[in-house]
Amino acid sequence: MHETAGMANTSRTFSDVRNVILSAHKNTGAQEKVGFYDTWAENYEQDVALLDYRAPLLAAECVSSFFTGDREKATVLDVACGTGLVSAHLKKMGFHHFVGVDGCLAMLELAKKTGLYQQLKQCLLGHDEISVEAETYDIVIIVGALSIGQVPLTVIRELWDATKPGGYVCMTTRGNADNREYKAELEKMIKALEEEQKWRRVTVVEVEEWERAISEQDSGYISGAIYLYQKSF
Ligand SMILES: C[S@@+](CC[C@H](N)C(=O)[O-])C[C@H]1O[C@@H](n2cnc3c(N)ncnc32)[C@H](O)[C@@H]1O
After folding, report:
1. For the chain, what is the domain count?
2. Ligand 1 pocket test, candidate residues 98, 125, 148, most atoms within 8 A of CB
């Protein structure tokens, strides 16, 4: 995990993390959710480490294992980039060109400090269009943000739009009880694009131990899934 601002509280416990996350009501709108991240940004990286949040690594490994192009030249759009965990992993795997998008200014400030991104843009996904050129990116990746109360599913076509023909779109979601309906809707939308022959499935990986559970309904670890699709030429 890369270093952040250095201002974070270093003695956080799993119970602190649980309380912070449970304080963010899942049914709030996107604007409120982004506001929640504004207050969480400073402790985000150490808190998700306590959660054993492996999604950025697992998604990066998934992309890396299927990408056959030139990594030095490949352009990556990291959507809902947060503090930059996904791009940090991809960088270690040989990728170099990153553009980040997120709705939360405090997360973007931390992402900027990593020095990973050539460009960072603030965008409330699902409300504002992602202002990037169409058919530009070799990889478009969104990790940890496609779930209930976060990024609306309308963004999926925008992810597809931003991807070069032959490029890859990598998406993740959670499999816990609260998110089951959203996950089913996401899969329906992914399938619809497949039926329209807009992309083809490369792999779908269901992961049992995605991150530690925090709600009373779930125990141990919650599951998650990675969807990797290749845009049609
Ligand atoms: C769990 S974090 C994931 C960050 C990063 N991808 C990672 O895996 O560490 C979710 C991110 O999505 C952003 N986010 C949530 N809803 C959003 C929305 N509607 N528009 C833009 N960003 C949003 C938050 O600001 C936050 O940075």
Report:
1. 1
2. 125
